[in-house]
Amino acid sequence: MKPAPFSISITAPDGSVRQSLLGMDRAELEAVVAAIGQPTYRANQLHEWLYRRHVDSVMAITSLSHELRGRLAETATLRTLTLADQQTSTDGTIKFLFRTHDGYNIESVLIPSEARDDQDEPKRRTICISTQVGCPLDCKFCATASMKLKRNLAAGEIIEQFLRVQDVAGQKITNIVFMGMGEPMLNYDAVFRAVALFADPGNDLVPAARITVSTSGLVEGIRRMADEGQKIKLALSLHASTNGLRSELMPINRRHDLTEVMDAVEYYYRKTRRTVTFEYILFEGLNDTEEDARRIAKLTRRVPSKVNIIPFHSISFTNPTGISARLHPTTRQQFDNFVAMLRAHGAQVMVRSSSGQDIEAACGQLAVKHGAERLE
After folding, report:
1. Is 107 a known active-site residue?
2. Kind and range of the H or E run holding 19
3. Which of 61, 91, 250, 330 has the smallest C-beta neighbourhood within 10 Å, fewest atoms?
4. Which of 28, 30, 107, 121 is catalytic?
5. Residue ranges of the alpha helices (H) in 5-125?
6. Which residue is catalytic, options 128, 139, 142, 363?
């Protein structure tokens, strides 16, 4: 897969090509302003209006003269995504379907925390961001897998999801999780360009400590995060306690099995000293037994960690076959029993609420229902 650019070029109705400025850092913005004969300080102005003031049009950058804005608008644009659908759950979760400039569907989800402050407002507002159109990893419990991989998202498209959702929310987003469509580690450079811009204190977006990248177990990416000293959090999609079941559920396990993945996680912890999150979806009769709890607790105790236990959202609308057709949510009683067993074995456990079930908020559900293929 060709690496994604940091920003997107689009063709305007008149046939001219315009480069999106979102995703560019200060050095790249300096090149943009130099190309139209402007001094370097103009790049700092553009950077502020893009990432701190969140303007959606070149013509809204009022620190530039009207004439200069007009010249810049001939070759540059700011936004490339179109809001195609938006659904709000009774629990406050909002699902967004965006259409890319080349006609693909991607999703973002805004999830308010159940915990409330003194004004009865959510203490956290977390956005779940997509990093690819589709996904190549074919996890058997994920609706996105039925789309296959179309392309990587550019850093600008990743950032635009955040900006567009915050515009709609009207309140500050406090946390970012890269747990939407796609495998972030397969689009590493674009993802971490976006992370750098999100976490830049001057942009007042989201601090690094409140950003989490989730991976299905791409060892190279985990080790690279550690070696680069990335300040954000790591989450690993685990979902099984044995290689046999994990390989059935997540074919990537045949490339990087539990031994190799856990070695990489230990390496990450030794280099960063940051707590790791393990994600674990419960499936009835497959991974919810006493033995599973014992093995998961043993695995996750290898590093300071917490285990997020997640309810399963059905993917029956994708007409699944094979093991996918046999996946069902564990019962409420067994769910609670499993959590209790994990804690009894010494694991630190967090229970993920089943946010947005009434609006298909799980990864890929809305995009698949709207059509996985490009709209011509």
Report:
1. yes
2. strand 17-20
3. 91
4. 107
5. 26-35, 41-51, 66-73
6. 363
